Amino acid sequence: MCIVEMTKAHMPAVVKMHRDNIKTGLTAWLGQRFCEYLYWGIRSTPHSFVLVYEDKQHQPLGFICCATNTSKMYKRIILQRFFPMMVSAISKFLRPSVFKQALTAVKRPKTFKTGDFSEWKLPEAEIIAMAVSPDAQGRHIGTKLIQAAFEKFRSLGHDKIRAWTRENNEQATAFYQKHGFELLGMQQYDTGKICVLVADLNKQDETTS
Questions:
Q1: Residue 93 CB neighbours (<10 A)
Q2: Which domains does the chain have, with CATH numbers?
Q3: If you average pLDDT over residues 110-135, what whole number do you get?
């Protein structure tokens, strides 16, 4: 078992794992095919990466999706993959509520630089999503994935990372706090209140050295 960069062979299972475990956001609204385009776009930009924990048969048991700059990541994906993504989910995009939610997701990185968020001076680097297969729970796969993501961020020159969870997702918030993230507070967002967290990787080095 090991952690590797996501490949096309991993992608359908990774997207299904995301959609099965994370019931909000683009992956919940726009279907498997759209999300495969989205995830391969994330995998393919120089501003983001996806790490996969795979078993001996190279089947994904968990993943973590990250960006060094989420705004640049979305811009690159839209420029390169807008048409096939739209075609794959056109019937859903015609629903005003879904289109609004999708637009909100794309605008989220800019939102973190404005209003109350701007006071916190949040880092550009971000953990976008992570999930572990229910069958693989209890093996510390989430811990191994987030530690691998920290190392990847360090290698790319980033020492601070942001993450966010929804107000009612206490389990996810507690997981991030357990792994060195500080809860800055809660803020109102377009789709409800969110918890905003930041990890300082330099502080983590000090506590482990």
A1: 17
A2: 2-208 (3.40.630.30)
A3: 79
